[in-house]
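Appendix B, record 7
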Amino acid sequence: MKILTKVSTLVKPVLVILFLVLPALLTGVSAQASAQETSTSDNKDGSWRFISLADWHSAEKFIMGDRHREHKAAVDEDIATLKWMKQKFGGELMILPGDSNSGHWDTPKFIKKFNAKLSSKLTPRQAILQAGKLCYEGMIDTFEKGGYDTLLMAVGDHEVGDNPWPVGSDVSKYQAEFRESFAKAFNYSSDGTMFKYQQKIGSANSRPIGTKYQDTSYAYLHKNILFVTMDVFHQEDYKTALGEQGTVTGTVVGRHLQWLESVLSQARKISSIKHIFVQSHLPVIYPVRKVSSSGMLIDNGIDNPFWQLMRKYQVDIYFAGEVHANTVTKDPDSALLQVVTRGNFFTNFQTIDISDDKIEMTLYRHYGEKTSDGNYRTAGKLIVDKSKQETIIEASGELALLEPKSRLLHFTFEQDFAEVERPINGLGEKKSSYVVDGKRVERTIANLGSFGSQYDALLHNVEIVLGKYGNAGQFSNDSRMAVFAMGPLQGEHAIAYEISFKTQSSSNQILINTATIWGNTPKEFLNLYLNDGLPTVAISANKMLNVNAKKLNDGQWHTIKVSMPHDNSKLSELIIEVDGKVLETTLTNGDDRIRFNQSMRFTVGGKGYSGKAMKTIPVKNFTGLIDDVSLWSL
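Structure tokens (predicted):
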């Protein structure tokens, strides 16, 4: 099958003006003012529609307090939003790629509060089952009242207690109970006797019977689409660690994987199935945009047999959530698309229009305070046209195809903005997000890299002045510059970054900071300091790579580039370039593998959001000029 891709991508710096106005053009038309949307199940041409809502995260309220009294206003707002959505956009069903609630129902803190509410003394096992029943039944009732009674819900990490899953812990021990409470509500009849999705796909069972996933993974045929919902949270037992998250990891193996292949292979023999969609919670292809998320991914990326099967049997779209942001990526060797999207309390959703030879997705983003007001604007489009020999993919806005190996971040300082002029997804959900290392930020610098406006940098007291390449940022001890969205550094994945600067300070200064924003552990980063003019790259509080260079605090412009030669690089393998020349380096306190904490926010010239993690490291904020900061995924 030939594939022709038409992608609306970010422009080069010479077209900066066009880039800066593009987000406004993409989002300027509200759903209220756009072309009339159909709310009927079928159009005259036979097409139909469903809705995608990842990471809704609002169901915890159904557990604590009566939803008809204490949480009535919030529940009524949800119902009103759903009714508006149903009336305006229709949709025969809704897919939800995981994370409806907060989880943590195994913890002593939750159980104590839950027992007080129920006037009982529940064990962790009992608490999980009872909390799940209240949570999911309340959610389903709300969506039904809003007009959506077919919910295809995938298990997310919050449905199984939330990561991590330490060896021997209750959250590891009671994985079966987390799944039981979920499956009984979503996938069984109201009396609990019959699994809802029993129709075989050809000769293949609709679910992996005989595995621990038989109630949470299933295939469902609706009109001309096969939906396959996957539970990808794999555990051997609660005493065996499988990776950095503990006893649970993201993968599909054994009979679970064999079942998936049987379903996909049978589906490809059924001529009435025109498209195959698979949903689970975890993204596969790195990198993805990320907002306030641990950012868990499927093990081994596209090399995982799970992804290889979807490629082999020509799955059209893989839907995922987890990261609370929007990223669409095409598989390098097929037309398979990974669509990772944001839901988060109805702040985003997607409509997907289906005909036999076309898939058309529209991303809507909410602006304002109440989602029931209908103030949604079109934020992205994705069209897959299979009507001819060549499959044509057209993508724009927040659904534009991302090139995985590209310059993700690029700050040129040519113009700064008031934050309200270029709103950043998720930033307004907590007032604390606007505070960077003790300072309130109100302005931004545009990110011209492929990660786009979601990764605009927040600014405080950074003066825009004449620099090396046009404008630059004048930094003082009181300056702040940090990206609110998380990553893109993650795990062992290779990256490179570059920064130009001019300074005369003799302090040990921060140029680039990638430390964690959660906790105070000073490791798992790749930081760049300038110690009395001498460049130093650090991966922890004491493991460093010293660059054998002349002092660079001479009041002249200099450029440093730090590159990992491959995934899973060692500190000693880093390539350090100063003013275009590769320089020799020496280690302090030995060598080690470079591995990034998943919960970091990219910071320029200071501690940023990671003040706690950096408090024991004797480095200060940068003083001088900074220009042309870039970060690449390699």
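Remarks on this record: The chain has a mean pLDDT of 93. The domain at 47-355+363-373 is CATH 3.60.21.10 (Purple Acid Phosphatase; chain A, domain 2).
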